Amino acid sequence: MSNVKDMIAKRAAEEIKPNSIVNLGIGIPTLVADYLNDDHFDLHTENGLLGVSAVREDDIDPLRVNAGKLPVGEAVGAAYFHSADSFAMIRGGHVDAAILGALQVDSKGRVANWAIPGKDIIGVGGAMDLLVGAKKIIITTRHVSKDGSPKLVGECTYPITSTRIADTIITDLAVFQWNGEKYVLTELMGDASLEEVVNNTTLDFEVGVNVGEG
Q: Which Gene3D superfamilies does the protein's record reference (predicted)?
């Protein structure tokens, strides 16, 4: 696949069970919608819409946006509601999966995705609530930062968003699954090698069976 972001998004879509309610974060997560079967999911956005769909150019409504202020469409049967009700859905455990971006994820499974020290921020948004309330957390991110530093680290140096453990991490190099104690490298992405993953990861992980063979 030519675009690594799409490669990550497509793999993330495979983690979604049929008939799930899914919240997509900003960035790579928004691309996941392109790889989901319309008959088997409902997309939720914390600003008050259940039934998000792709938007047609001739049907853009400046008031119909997702949490990242991007125009969205409405699926058949979509429902609108107050953002307070939307957050009640999240906090009440009614969102089956949240797919979020990350600045860092550490060996304890903690996610930092809302602030970089010394830089202006808008706020944490719904990420904190989603990390606590969603039944499954899937992180989609590039494996390293623009400066080449690892994003999967031993311990977060950026402010963490929540102590909730991320269940799955999907990058342009690898897929990691939390096994209850630590992350397990379960697959390599694209043309990535095990050596490349090891050299660009300071997060503590074990290598799954058959990974890197052949």
A: Glutaconate Coenzyme A-transferase (3.40.1080.10)
Catalytic residue among 46, 57, 196, 213: 46
Distance, CA of 184 to CA of 175 (rounded, Å): 8
Q: How far apart are CA 209 and CA 214, in angstroms?
A: 12
Q: How many CB atoms lie within 10 A of CB 171?
A: 27
CB 52 within 8 A of CB 77: no
Q: For residue 99, which phi and psi values (nearest 5 degrees)?
A: -110, 115
Residues listed for the chain:
214
Residues 185, 25: Cα–Cα separation, whole Å: 23
Query: Six-digit token pair at 25?
Result: 């974060």
- Write the single-letter amino acid at 90: I
**Contact in structure between 152 and 169 (CB atoms under 8 Å):** yes
Is 111:160 a contact under the CB 8 Å cutoff? yes
Domains recognised in the chain with CATH numbers: 4-207 (3.40.1080.10)
pTM (predicted TM-score):
0.92
Query: What residue type is assigned to position 130 of the chain?
Result: L
* 46 among known catalytic residues: yes
And the tokens for 164?
């909730």
Other CB atoms within a 10 A radius of the CB of residue 135 amount to 14
Angle (nearest 5°) at CA 108 between 107 and 111 = 90
Tell me which H or E stretch contains 126.
Answer: none
